[in-house]
Amino acid sequence: MKLLQQRILRDGAVRPGGVLKVDSFLNHQMDVALFAEMGREWRRRFADVPVNKILTIEASGIGIACVAAMEFGVPVVFAKKSRSLNLDGDVYTAKVRSYTRGGEYDVRVEKRFLGPDDCVLILDDFLARGGAAMGLLSIVRQAGARVAGVGVAIEKGFQEGGDTLRRAGVRLESLAIVERMDADTGEIVFRGE
Amino acid sequence: MKLLQQRILRDGAVRPGGVLKVDSFLNHQMDVALFAEMGREWRRRFADVPVNKILTIEASGIGIACVAAMEFGVPVVFAKKSRSLNLDGDVYTAKVRSYTRGGEYDVRVEKRFLGPDDCVLILDDFLARGGAAMGLLSIVRQAGARVAGVGVAIEKGFQEGGDTLRRAGVRLESLAIVERMDADTGEIVFRGE
């Protein structure tokens, strides 16, 4: 998606350790007009699938998912990262490995909100090694729901998450795939360029 | 806001300990069409203020803030609850007391995203004792920005957060104010009824 690529080039910054900072428009300050364009693009790409629910994970996926959901006309469910006193008993859970922060954490979704009648699109801001996406896929499958696919704003093409999902037969729609980037020069190259 | 009150009566549930469960449409599964109506209502109520940025707090405020921001045509910034390896140095911070989970936590916003030229509307899902709102107000003031006001979906009128903000001269627009509720009978009474 050209618009997102241009925005990454203009406002993104490459940091050592494979970090792409896009927090001025994607995951700290959030440009909701851009999110609406992203939602329209996913809607176009998943037009053949009867998506009736969007699943994402807190925190930075929620804004993108909610604005995109306006385009699809469906509700959003977000997986919670920690046990909350307000959560009732019956939950699907999955373990997610975090490479950014280190360690593992649990994600959970109440069973009431996902079931066999659902066709679920998973949305998130980043796909790197695929930990979050695999956790969310596990939850959709535990629910017996149909996986419409996975949509991410930015795929780090130089990490294995995208290939892992594609090899597993998951339909993946990444709006921008960073093929390589260089913290010294600031260069960012997208796949297909 | 009648639509939200009706939804709370239909799908909300009162639990012991002053807990109002609205997670089927507000803060776990999220009805984004309802959020859009809420955004229009806040837009109407704050029509006289030149809001140019919306500030919220992760996680459950983000969806509401982003959909509402579509109505205002402004970006969203969300305060992060924990130190992240991807956050740069210069941040505003505030301590927030959590009554739901117990204890205190830090919230932080990068200084790049709030400054003296901003007129900031603070949005969140709940206002109970006011801990999160006070933390966000502190951050807006640290930035030297103008506080447009605070908008919450549900104010627990039987707890002190709303009165604290009003006494402090903060403009507060709560879309539904629960005057009292009863976990035994399930009764929910809104202010002004």
Structure, described:
Two copies of one chain form a homodimer. Chain A contains five helices and eleven strands; from the N terminus they run H-E-E-E-H-E-H-E-E-E-E-H-E-H-E-E. Chain A has 193 residues and is α/β, with parallel strands linked by helices. In chain A, the strands form three sheets. A six-stranded mixed sheet of chain A has the order 5-4-8-9-10-11, sandwiched between helices. In chain A, strand 10 and strand 11 (188-190) form a beta hairpin. The model of chain A has no long low-confidence stretch (mean pLDDT 94). Chains A and B meet through strand 3, helix 2, helix 3 and strand 5 of A and strand 3, helix 2, helix 3 and strand 5 of B.
Q: What is this structure, in a nutshell?
A:
Chain A has helices at residues 2-11, 32-45, 60-72, 131-142, 161-167; strands spanning 13-15, 19-21, 29-30, 53-57, 76-79, 91-97, 104-110, 119-127, 146-156, 172-181, 188-190. The first copy, chain A, is of the alpha/beta class and 193 residues long.
The helix/strand series of chain A, from N terminus to C terminus, equals: HEEEHEHEEEEHEHEE
Let me know the number of strands of chain A: 11
Q: N-to-C terminal Cα separation of chain A, in Å?
A: 12 Å
Mean pLDDT of chain A: 94
Count, helices of chain A: 5
Strand order of the largest sheet of chain A: 5-4-8-9-10-11
Question: What's the topology here?
Answer:
The structure is a homodimer of 193-residue chains.
Chain A: H1 2-11, E1 13-15, E2 19-21, E3 29-30, H2 32-45, E4 53-57, H3 60-72, E5 76-79, E6 91-97, E7 104-110, E8 119-127, H4 131-142, E9 146-156, H5 161-167, E10 172-181, E11 188-190
Parallel strand pairs in A: 4-5, 4-8, 8-9, 9-10
Antiparallel strand pairs in A: 1-2, 6-7, 10-11
Helix pairs in contact in A: 2-3
